[in-house]
Amino acid sequence: MAWILRVDSFAMGKSSRLKIERKSQESEAKQVQLAREAAHKLIAEAEFPLGYPLTEITQIMVLSESVYEQIVAAGIRSLGKGVSQDSLADFSCESHLALDKYQAIAARIFREHVKVEPDCKPGCNWCCYPRVTLKVSEAAQIHRAIEALPADKRTEISQRMTTFVEATNAMSPAAVLRSTRLCPLNENGNCLIYADRPLTCRTVHSYNVRTCRAYVETGAMVASRTSIFSHEIGRFAATAITQVLAHYGADQRSFELNDLVLGLLTDNRVGTAIGKKKTTALDPYHRGEVESAAITEIGSILGK
To answer: SS3 for 135?
Structure first.
């Protein structure tokens, strides 16, 4: 009888676990559905330029909605069990994979429409001079990538970032973003953490390298033909990342790359803070209004 009771108890325990698992799946499906509805709302409010065939606009709507959904699902998987520096880095990695996949599709559609190839290629680093903003999840991903480098390389990066931050500490957010110092993560024309670069870098697709060079050399911001498709997908990805961070209580502000990554490399309080809801240790690394300055400056650079 005792043996039967133990079997019944095990069966009941297994049944309870299945119910919990099913409830978790239903909850995830509900959150993805909410993400889909939010994406539809954003799509309805999106403005597309005249001249694009309706079929292509429909395609970019589908791609934008898909990347939004996938990033929300990535957030549920990575952050649903708790926010930490590692889970934030995992979320960022998954988000970037989704972004890359749909941007590749969008690039093909755009190429078929305009019949030109982007000027971007290995060794061209004019886009590595304008300042970059990023979220705490992306900073965690970059920090993990830097930590995987040899010790001497980590030291070099930290020293270059320190020099940059010291040189720009007295600048306003807009002035920092207008400064044209080569990114400390660039070495000999190549990004040391290219596979882990943030969304701001991933959405740069230039069809006229002369405009990129002109900005760095003269500060002239000349509108350049750019893929509206890639831009829209990047916009939806950025929205999804921000909303996921907000949902799980992480800091959703944007930071200047060097400020925050240097903080992670040199100050343990920052690493601890980004895994908590109240991220007071991040405050010294946040330059007020940097997000709005970034939207204006980087948007102008890309001719949006």
So the answer is: coil
